[in-house]
Design brief:
The structure holds two protein chains of two kinds.
Chain A: E1 3-12, E2 15-25, E3 30-34, H1 41-48, E4 56-61, E5 64-65, H2 73-77, E6 80-83, H3 94-104, H4 109-122, H5 138-151, E7 156-159, H6 168-185, E8 188-193, H7 196-202, E9 205-210, E10 213-215, E11 221-229, E12 235-239, E13 243-247, E14 253-259, E15 265-267, E16 278-289, E17 292-298, E18 302-308, H8 309-314, E19 322-326, E20 332-334
Parallel strand pairs in A: 3-8, 3-9, 6-7, 7-8
Antiparallel strand pairs in A: 1-2, 1-4, 4-5, 9-10, 11-12, 11-14, 12-13, 14-20, 15-19, 16-17, 16-19, 17-18
Helix pairs in contact in A: 3-4, 3-5, 4-5
Chain B: H1 2-16, H2 20-53, H3 59-69, H4 74-85, H5 100-125, H6 128-136, H7 141-168, H8 172-178, H9 188-198, H10 202-229
Classes of the chains: A alpha+beta, B mainly alpha.
Chain lengths: 335, 231
């Protein structure tokens, strides 16, 4: 076990940005932390990186409870490095920026050079050693920040939205770097993203954050809606004031609706009749991830659907098809 | 106008002649001012850091007081220190009055708030990310402070230079605590005041030129290192 969190909260003023009753993170794997802006991803990373103490609650790192007022915090931090979403480099050359982590760890001058060169190589920035850090572009700065973390050879690296400010080509590079350091150096990695695709492409496990709380990962189709009662007494949750999903709830007014992507079924287009929980839509995207296929069907709102590969083959599904989907009330959960 | 040009030319001649009395005055001025600037910086820069990076009750009050003390009149400091070190004062036994040490003490009190305030101003503006980046890369509290110092060094050096400018040109403390004793505590400013009283202007103009030259030299030096530091 790498981290264990217990009853952790972080409160700014009167706003609770994090509220996590319990969470366990395992060693050696890549986690993705998924959530919209303001869901508390960065706050959680900063606490896990031991940069900011939680307001209440405790953290266990490597089987030891962390004491945030203690002096040993610096030693613990040397095993955990966080790469910021908007990294800053020190006013010095790239080489000196990379040297910093080694210098404060007391690595001798002779031993520093090969490590720095190796890490620069890894992020494809070997020609920039003598460049002034402040002359670099955003993408280059991001790479150097990653190299800066790597030279420290930590046990854990946190990446806060590592690809949010880089172009598509650099994005692939950075994803490969992350995958590479996890596999070759066995560094545990947690990265945040709001890109569902990236999360499932890169990580073994996904942690979903929503308004500071950890929500089960199945909550991928998340909408703001309003509960209405139909003529026959059944209840619907109206999303964007136009699409009603059947729900079983006692709640009224504005709610959050989550639809389990594994419980939505794609039906053949020629299924006759209309029913409240059957929608017409168009299949706009399909991707393969971890033995499953993720399909996105536009029914007025985009819906994520997860199904087996066989279902796709059997149903002769093709991107661009008009399809009908069934969204039974068991799939729809009001939060 | 002719009178001014005469004084100006004579002043240049005086400086050119390397008159030892004149150069001793310059030496005392620089020695006292540099000492007080050094001491005030060694105390004030860390104090500014401590105030800037710690949150405690009354922090705003401390900052406000420091800012107000930047306008401390030299004669008030002179009086205050005098009351302590004069024969009848609490520290009278140390026999400090009319010594260079007394001048340094007074000047340190004068510019300590300047160094503290300008350090707070420089460090509180620095991007929080520098601190967090240093910390996450494994830096301890002191190493983190050094990183922030490096990133804010131009602001801090500017504060130290402002403090030096204040003491090299002040006269109240030098006069009241130094006493303008020839060959001992006579500085450029006290000498100029005395010459003015005597109605002699040549030495005054010469020393005035030296003062201006020093501030020019300090600023050229500062610009030079600032230019070098831009990477």
């Amino acid at each position: 076990m790498l981290f264990e969190l217990k009853d952790l909260t972080r409160i700014y003023g009167d706003r609770t940005v994090l509220d996590i009753p319990g969470l366990i993170l395992e060693k050696g794997i890549i986690y993705a932390m998924l959530g919209p802006n303001g869901s508390g991803k960065t706050s959680l990373l900063e606490i896990l990186a031991l940069l900011v103490p939680p307001t209440t609650g405790q953290i266990r790192y490597e089987n030891k409870w962390v004491n945030f007022s203690g002096n040993h915090l610096t030693l613990l931090r040397r095993e955990i490095v966080m790469v910021r979403q908007d990294p800053v480099l020190f006013t010095a050359t790239v080489y000196k920026n990379l040297e910093f982590g080694l210098k404060i760890r007391g690595v001798s001058r002779k031993e520093r050079d090969p490590v720095i060169c190796e890490c620069l190589d890894l992020v494809k920035m070997q020609d920039f050693a003598d460049a002034g850090a402040h002359t670099l572009s955003g993408g280059e700065t991001q790479r150097i920040a990653i190299a800066q973390a790597l030279v420290c050879s930590p046990r854990v690296i946190f990446f806060d939205e590592p690809t949010s400010s880089v172009d598509a080509e650099s994005q692939i590079d950075i994803e490969n770097i992350i995958r590479g350091i996890n596999e070759q150096k066995e560094i545990s990695i947690i990265f945040t993203t709001h890109d569902l695709m990236q999360a499932s492409r890169l990580s073994r496990r996904v942690i979903s954050l929503q308004e500071g709380r950890i929500v089960p990962q199945r909550f991928q189709n998340l909408f703001n809606g309003r509960i209405t009662t139909d003529g026959d007494g059944s209840r619907s949750c109206l999303v964007y004031d136009k699409i009603g999903f059947l729900v079983k709830t006692e709640k009224r007014g504005g709610v959050k609706l989550s639809i389990d992507p594994r419980k939505i079924v794609i039906l053949p287009d020629d299924v006759p009749g209309a029913h409240k929980n059957i929608f017409d839509g168009r299949l706009i995207q399909m991707t393969y991830e971890h033995d499953e296929v993720r399909a996105i069907v536009d029914i007025g709102v985009p819906l994520n659907i997860l199904m087996s590969k066989e279902k796709v083959t059997d149903g002769h599904l093709c991107v661009g098809d008009n399809v009908k989907i069934s969204c039974p009330s068991e799939a729809n959960e009001v939060l | 106008m002719g009178f001014f040009i005469d004084s100006f030319l004579s002043a240049i001649m005086l400086l050119w002649s390397f008159n030892p009395d004149v150069y001793f005055i310059i030496y005392v001025s620089l020695k006292v001012s540099l000492s007080s600037t050094l001491i005030a910086s060694l105390l004030g820069v860390p104090a500014g850091f401590m105030i800037s990076f710690n949150s405690f009750r009354g922090k705003r009050a401390v900052v406000t007081v420091m800012n107000s003390l930047m306008a401390l009149p030299t004669v008030v400091v002179g009086l205050l220190v005098y009351s302590f070190i004069s024969r009848k004062g609490l520290l009278g036994i140390l026999d400090l009055l009319y010594t260079q040490t007394a001048m340094v003490i007074g000047q340190v009190i004068l510019i300590f708030p300047i160094v503290v305030s300008l350090t707070i101003a420089a460090t509180s503006r620095v991007d929080e990310r520098y601190r967090k980046t240093a910390m996450t890369l494994g830096a301890g509290p002191l190493q983190t402070a050094l990183v922030v110092f490096r990133e804010t060094r131009f602001g801090i050096i500017a504060g130290v230079i402002a403090a030096f400018g204040r003491v090299i040109s002040e006269i109240g403390i030098s006069m009241m605590l130094g006493g303008n004793a020839k060959g001992y505590t006579r500085t450029m400013t006290t000498a100029m005041a005395l010459e003015y009283d005597k109605g002699e202007f040549v030495l005054g103009v010469a020393l005035g030129m030296v003062l201006l030259f020093i501030s020019l030299a300090v600023n050229i030096f500062f610009n030079h290192i600032q230019g070098k530091g831009r990477v």
